[in-house]
């Protein structure tokens, strides 16, 4: 399976990704600059990504807890999601996300 990250400079990085891995895990295993300060337990917003609009309807719905954490993200958009909450499946093979220009780690100041 594939996933595409659009880095802050506009560079597209296509990576191989195993099914069931989260966007955060895929980013970390491919040296993509997503922090994930809480290590994927949804206690921060540093794994904030911006999903390309054409993919949004294919993702699982945004849960209230995720929305609460996203409210802390810098540069929030209508297609923002937490990378720790979306696992790659056949239905979203090829998923494309943008990295936000900046993040703020509310957990560690």
Structural write-up:
The chain is an alpha+beta fold and 109 residues long. It is 17% helix and 19% strand. The protein is built from three helices and five strands. It has helices at 23-29, 53-56, 64-70; strands at residues 2-6, 12-16, 48-51, 80-82, 95-98. Strands 2-1-5-3-4 form a five-stranded mixed beta sheet. A hairpin with a 5-residue loop joins strand 1 (2-6) and strand 2 (12-16). The longest helix is centred in the N-terminal third of the chain and has 7 residues, at 23-29. It is globular, with a radius of gyration of 12 Å. The termini are far apart. The relative contact order is 0.29. The model is unreliable at 105-109 (pLDDT under 50).
Mean pLDDT figure:
92
Report the order of strands and helices: EEHEHHEE
Strand content: 15-25%
Structural class: alpha+beta
The rough form would be described as globular
Lateral arrangement of strands in the main beta sheet? 2-1-5-3-4
Count of discrete alpha- or pi-helical segments spanning 4 or more residues: 3
**Largest sheet, described in full?**
5 strands, mixed
Q: What distinguishing features does this structure have?
A:
109 residues, alpha+beta, 5-stranded mixed β-sheet, 5 strands
SSE map:
Blueprint: E1 2-6, E2 12-16, H1 23-29, E3 48-51, H2 53-56, H3 64-70, E4 80-82, E5 95-98
Parallel strand pairs: 1-5
Antiparallel strand pairs: 1-2, 3-4, 3-5
